[in-house]
Amino acid sequence: MDKQYREDLKNDQFVEAVGHSVEYVASHKSQVYTYVGLGLAAVAIALGVYWFAGSRKAQQQADLAQALQIRNAIIGAKTDLNDLRPAFATEDDKSKALVKALTEVSAKHSGTDAASVAHYQLAAVSSDKGDLAEAAKHFEKAVSEGSRDYSSVAKLSLAQVYHAQGKAAEAEKLLKELMASPSTLVSKEQATFTLARLLMASNPGEARKLIDPLTKDSSPIVVRNAVGLIGELPAAK
Question: How far apart are alpha carbons 148 and 167 in whole angstroms?
């Protein structure tokens, strides 16, 4: 189940659906002070670069940025003395250091967006290792600790983890919440695409009902995704 979950996240249709939200953010720059992404550690779109507005959050910014630098660390000895990235002997050492640093950020800045992003990244690490139970715990914390936008990003991923765990009802509930109350970072269309994809095998008729209206959307990327998903639906009996 976890293998299929990761494959779904890497699917081109999912990535393009995420692109719709990125497109929205780009057109609302005055409302958004940060780039965020969706998906998990191995996915091209990952919660990563993170900026805060205002001096009150400067320390949170610095602590989180320092922790996230570990993701780009060098494995083995440095060959370029000007390379400022941290270095670790093995991937396992790097992973342990990342978990430690993110855990410290989540504890130090509990109840903030910094803690939400730290928990999201910890969930990504757990998911990449195939530990969906631990990933779900961190995504749940990311949902509860972050502001509305960051919470919505975590909720989208949490729904997919729930689905991979066989918790279909919980996953559907979260996605319907996102559809009813989209955010700057998670559009109604994106939540709809995700729910439709999760329903494709168990309830293709309902999935089609969700997708059909989006084939007439004004956004070309939404239409392209809708048409693509309809093409993946099982043939009607």
Answer: 24
**Residue 5 in tokens:** 């979950």
87: which strand partners?
Answer: 74
Token pair listed for 81: 């003395």
Whole-model pTM: value is 0.75
Token code pair at residue 190: 């994106």
Domains of the chain: 2-182 (1.25.40)
Q: How far apart are CA 176 and CA 219, in angstroms?
A: 21
- Tens of pLDDT, residue by residue over 92-103, are 999 999 999 999
Q: What is the DSSP letter of 181?
A: S
Compute CA distances 23 → 20, 35, 188, 194, whole Å. Answer: 5, 12, 13, 17
Residues 156-165 pLDDT 10s: 999 989 998 9
Residue ranges in the chain whose pLDDT is less than 70? 1-56, 236-237
